[in-house]
Design a protein that fits this description.
Shape: globular
Largest sheet: 8 strands, parallel
Number of helices: 15
Number of strands: 17
Structural class: alpha/beta
Helix content: 25-40%
């Protein structure tokens, strides 16, 4: 029987219209399965949901999203409080006891309860919000459960280049993965814009006497005048809730096209189609990623690259491997952003090929997840051997 890995996403079950959010974890799950592992998808649910969301509907929607990828039967649930799950919900899913039989918990949710993590014989935490997580841990705003090993998608985390603490932990870097068979190169539609898909809110931190915003909205405001300086069409698909119309009224007169993210990315398939119809990506980062020099790169950008789409994205810190002008351009200023878009357009087909090559070399899920598992499980084997001696 194949080994089992329990994957704990950051609550996709309560974000039924977050197709892009779901893809973050699908990349890992599909890579695990391609490597021969049985995958268990673990979600926490609140039977007393203060927003009165029906758990039956939430489970049905998530299983419907997972079904095309062969993962609907892999869903396991646990209660986030002392109240048991409704019987007709529990009978449709695995439970925590079954999930805890897995050989490894691969946890991508920083708030997974400690008692849940302790149920597993071996656990690995993957930080997808570098800088913010470490500062919140330092200030006590966040208590990440103890894990056996810690990974992060921020290249500088735990290194002298980081402008934030390491929390006394050893962090292992991993790029964000993309499952290449599900993200083949695709030609852009005629007249397609450079796009991005984003949820604006990212929290904020006060550290070292300074307040740093984590809202991507603030980052984009610095580049609001970009359409006036570049002939390429630019579009944002954003989730802003009640502030959407205000943002659209502010940006569209400047030349941006603004779309409601839920209209174009409510399912994983819609999200993928939107990216693959685009000409490329243009995106700013959360100010925290820039200010703290996290060397973060978005999982969304990896999807653009895999699709053969050049990406022009904001520089977030030094990288040992990311280029700044071959399929991927990382800008620090408005002038650099303008020049990057011009360079892509001057040799567009070449940069499309280079984008896909980057994804194949650095972000291929099989390689990325394979390295994570090798480190997570090898340490366990080594510790077991030392104990035996």
């Amino acid at each position: 029987m194949s080994a089992a890995i329990c994957l704990a996403p950051a609550r996709t079950i309560i974000y039924p219209k977050g197709g892009g959010h779901l893809w973050v974890y699908l990349q890992w799950a599909l890579g695990l399965r391609a490597l021969g592992y049985r995958v268990i998808w673990l979600e926490g649910i609140d039977p007393r949901d203060p927003k009165r969301r029906d758990p039956r509907e939430l489970v049905t929607t998530l299983q419907r999203h997972l079904e095309p990828y062969g993962l609907a039967e892999s869903l396991a649930l646990f209660s986030l409080n002392d109240e048991p799950l409704p019987p007709d919900v529990a009978e449709r899913t695995l439970d925590l006891a079954e999930a805890a039989e897995a050989d490894l918990l691969l946890n991508l949710w920083h708030s997974l309860p400690t008692p849940v993590v302790r149920r597993f014989r071996r656990s690995a935490f993957v930080d997808t919000d570098p800088g913010l997580v470490q500062i919140w841990m330092t200030t006590g705003e966040l208590r990440v459960a103890p894990h056996d090993i810690y990974f992060t998608v921020g290249e500088t985390v735990g290194t002298p280049a980081a402008r934030f603490p390491d929390c006394g932990l050893r962090w292992h870097y991993t790029p964000p993965p993309v499952f290449l068979p599900e993200w083949p190169p695709a030609p852009a539609e005629s007249g397609a814009p450079y796009t991005t898909v984003a949820h604006w809110w990212g929290g904020s931190v006060r550290f070292g006497g300074e307040h740093v915003s984590g809202d991507k909205q603030a980052g984009f405001l610095e580049y609001a005048q970009l359409p006036a300086r570049s002939p390429v069409p630019l579009e944002q698909a954003i989730c802003l809730g009640r502030f959407y119309e205000e943002w659209r009224a502010r940006l569209e007169p400047l030349g941006w096209t603004i779309r409601e993210a839920w209209d174009i990315s409510a399912t994983p398939e819609q999200y993928r189609a939107y990216i693959q119809r685009s000409r490329g990506e243009f995106s700013c980062a959360k100010p925290t990623y820039v200010k703290l020099a996290t060397s973060w790169m978005s999982d969304r950008t990896a999807c653009f690259l895999a699709s053969g789409k050049p990406a022009v994205v904001q520089h977030t810190g030094p990288s040992r491997y990311l280029p700044d002008g071959e399929g991927l351009f990382r800008f620090r200023t408005m002038d650099e952003a303008v020049r990057a878009l011009a360079r892509v357009e001057a040799d567009y087909e070449r940069h499309c090929r280079l984008a896909r090559a980057l994804a194949e070399e650095y972000f291929d899920t099989r390689r990325v997840v394979g390295r994570v598992l090798e480190q997570a499980l090898a340490e366990h084997v080594g510790q077991s051997s030392r104990l035996a001696i």
